[in-house]
Amino acid sequence: MKNTFIIISILFVIVGGWCTYKSYDYGKTYKEEKTEYVKVLNFEERLLKAKEWIFTESEWAKRKVKSEQHLEAAESAYDNVLLMSIFVIIFGIVYILMVAVIAIQKKKLYLYLGIGFAIVALPCLLTGISIPMMEISAFNTELTIPLEIDASSYVKDIPLIGGVSDWMKLDLTQVFHGRMYYFYQSKSVFDLIFLLIKDGNWLVAISIIAFSVIIPIFKLLVTLGYGIANKKGNALGVFKFSYSLGKWSMADVFVAALFLGFLSFSNLNEGVETEALSLAGMYYFLGYCILSLVSSILVNAALKQNKENHNEPSDPVNAFIDSAGA
Fold it and tell me: Domain map of the chain by residue range?
């Protein structure tokens, strides 16, 4: 039965790794295509160049076709990201149910489920920090620039044409169809780290690396190592240290920072539309936070249960590790 647990865990790790790789690939494609879409409709290309001012309809027809191609490619890539997330959810549920059956038969429900949730949390974490978590943009739709020229004031004192001065008003209002983008950003945790390093913000970059990447991975690996340890005297102490790190988790601060960014961005200049969307990476990261918390609680419960069953042995470390390896 223990071998069965190991086999299905390895199979899930393989499937989860494949889903993580494909999600990263599709997420990268989404970001690239969405960026190209915005470039086609960027204000520098439309508003600051004379071509679309002069050939408004024909230029818009070209841009519309090109932008729609990039947008369709981006949406297709994002649909594939969501498809990968469905695979992870389905395989994760099936895996946890299989682990629960094994755990009940082995009479180690907390321990096996704790390890199982940690294994499911790992691809969620890796995917969550590698694909875009949020995108923000600022744009106008059907931007209209009124250009009214009133020449009557210049000719009203001329006797010959003063009588027709009311007709000398020109309406040259310019309408830019579709969207015109002024700003667009789509970032993953890794993108944010690289950007901070590039800008010289080493302290913030190191903090994000530590609290959003290194510590979460360390906690998961320690939970897994502790659960499968066999007669390693320092396993319990390492797990307790890892468990205590939960109070330093930056997940809540990280999510709060995202929404604060959204709230501040939504109050941009009046007349400019803003859009902030949470993407799949954010939900993967949220899934990791929940699964990791459940895993830590279950493994800690297994520790307490083992102590109670053994009536607080003189050497609880080895006693628990021996039982976990059984």
Answer: 2-135+185-325
